[in-house]
Design brief:
Bound molecules: uridine-5'-diphosphate
EC number: 2.7.4.22
Strand content: 15-25%
Order of helices and strands: EHEHHEEHEHEEHHEHE
Family: Belongs to the UMP kinase family.
Helix content: 25-40%
CATH architecture: 3-Layer(aba) Sandwich
Number of helices: 8
Catalytic activity: UMP + ATP = UDP + ADP
Subcellular location: Cytoplasm
GO molecular function: ATP binding; UMP kinase activity
CATH class: Alpha Beta
Strand order of the largest sheet: 4-3-5-2-1-6-8-9-7
Number of domains: 1
Distance between the termini: 33 Å
Largest sheet: 9 strands, mixed
Structural class: alpha/beta
Number of strands: 9
């Protein structure tokens, strides 16, 4: 059976926490394997996959700043944390036989290739997963902003933001049992209703570049596949 893809090239944003599973920090083996299994599934459907990974499971600049560390230094440490996650993702993907490359926004030639747009585009066309590490390479930004930036640069059809909740709700579903999930919402509505999708820099960049966002829950096996097949999964944010 030939399944029709809603999205041909996607930017998948994985937060650091998504790799943590139920552990208090770091990378949970089962969790990361479950995640890359899902990535493998959509690669095999013919989807081109770029990934931006966060670092919050290891280090987060804002929290370190609260502990009186210089913010820029703390942010560089946060970016280094994303490099560790990126390497772990690459290894996990390749253990399943899915080809992957890591490109880092901070150069560290012994560890990963430096970010190079043409090369990254070539990898995607070859069906390799490209994992972008070190965020934007600049302090005071987030990996959500890096995801918006790389998503736009790679001309992705959509940004898929994997979260612990399966979409955007009218209220916090953990606190309000009557909360319902939006199937879709426009960028303007999201702003007006003060729905927290991403930080404002990332959000604005997506809106300006016309990069739609799907917020979805990645815990459920097969969720990523459902999203790229256009089945009702998560919340679509669009212009
Ligand atoms: N970071 C940064 N610039 C970037 C991306 C990330 O300085 O372009 C730093 C920042 O300190 C951040 C940390 O890296 O707290 C980890 O990224 P993020 O918090 O976005 O990870 P996530 O929440 O997705 O796990």
């Amino acid at each position: 059976i030939k399944m029709s893809l809603k999205y041909k090239r996607v930017l998948l944003k994985l937060s650091g926490e998504a790799l943590m599973g139920s552990d208090p920090f770091g990378i949970n083996r089962e969790t990361i394997m479950q995640m890359v299994q899902q990535v493998k599934e959509i690669v095999e459907l013919g989807v081109e996959v770029a990934i931006v990974v966060g670092g919050g499971n290891i280090f987060r600049g804002v929290s370190a700043q609260a502990g009186s560390m210089d913010r820029a230094t703390a942010d560089y440490m946060g970016m280094l944390a994303t490099v560790m996650n990126a390497l772990a993702l690459k290894e996990a993907l390749e253990s399943l036989g899915t080809k992957a490359r890591v490109q880092s926004a901070l150069t560290m030639q012994q560890v990963a290739e430096a970010y190079a747009r043409p090369k990254a585009l070539q990898y995607l066309e070859e069906g390799k997963v490209v994992i972008f590490a070190a965020g934007t390479g600049n302090p005071f930004f987030t990996t959500d902003t890096a995801a918006a930036l790389r998503g736009a640069e790679m001309q992705c059809d959509v940004m898929l933001k994997a979260t612990n909740v399966d979409g955007i709700y009218t209220a916090d579903p953990k606190k309000d049992p009557s909360a319902t999930r939006y199937q879709s919402v426009t960028f303007d509505e999201a702003i007006k209703k003060k729905l927290k999708v991403m930080d404002s820099t990332a959000f604005t960049l997506c809106q300006e570049r016309n990069l739609n966002i799907v917020v979805f829950g990645i815990q459920k096996m097969g969720a990523l596949k459902s999203v790229v097949l256009g089945e009702d999964e998560g919340t679509l944010v669009h212009n």
